[in-house]
Amino acid sequence: DAGVTQSPTHLIKTRGQQVTLRCSPKSGHDTVSWYQQALGQGPQFIFQYYEEEERQRGNFPDRFSGHQFPNYSSELNVNALLLGDSALYLCASSLAASGGPETQYFGPGTRLLVL
Amino acid sequence: QKEVEQDPGPLSVPEGAIVSLNCTYSNSAFQYFMWYRQYSRKGPELLMYTYSSGNKEDGRFTAQVDKSSKYISLFIRDSQPSDSATYLCAMSARANAGKSTFGDGTTLTVKP
User: Per residue in A54-92, pLDDT tens?
Assistant: First the structure.
């Protein structure tokens, strides 16, 4: 079992550009959550996808959007990049039926640098 | 004011010491209380979680939750150099278990 995988591992973009990050959940998981972790801070919840729909959203602008595919993998899109979007973007997968955090596994993250 | 505040650290202790990591929170809706360990350039790894109040022990780790004080702690006994990492507390409400609110982490170094 490969666990949660994310691609790419690192990315450098310039202000105003758009970026797409990808996540494959752990085998058997049906829910994907995305988090942004700025340097020296804890992860901040961006949104969660289940059954190909956005189920919950944190306090992030509409520039952040996502998608979940029928195979449960997910993409995070960020438009009009700002310097402040530089961070580690974490994907976490879980099993909706569990109801608790015990099945939530994080991927290694994608480190985005905006110049 | 953040919903979850974590003792900032950094914390440096000798091998074998008892370590105490602490967080406070303000949202009464939180029911799940988690502790994650994060190594440099890696994703967080769930160490243990507690539902509602009480204590939970797992080997050298003990998690405590005091909902009346809105205070949670993680104790590490007989700390080892391999415990050196950033520890993150996180919390979620029962109905939204997938959405977790994290503290900013405490970086721990255990010196041999």
Answer: 998 999 999 999 999 999 999 999 999 999 999 999 999
DSSP string, B57-73: EETTEEEEEETTTTEEE
The letter for the amino acid at A46 is I
pLDDT-derived band at B41 (thresholds 50, 70, 90) equals confident
Q: How far is C-alpha B112 from the geometric centre of its chain's CA atoms?
A: 23
Q: Where are the beta strands (DSSP E) in chain B?
A: 4-6, 11-14, 19-25, 30-38, 45-51, 54-58, 61-66, 71-76, 85-93, 101-102, 106-111
Longest dimension (CA), chain B: 43
Q: Do B49 and A101 touch (CB under 8 A)?
A: yes
Asked if B51's CB is within 8 angstroms of A100's CB, the reply is yes
Residue of chain B with shortest Cα separation from A108: B43
Nearest to A114 by CA among A3, A6, A4, A18: A18
**Confidence band for A96, pLDDT divided at 50, 70 and 90:** confident
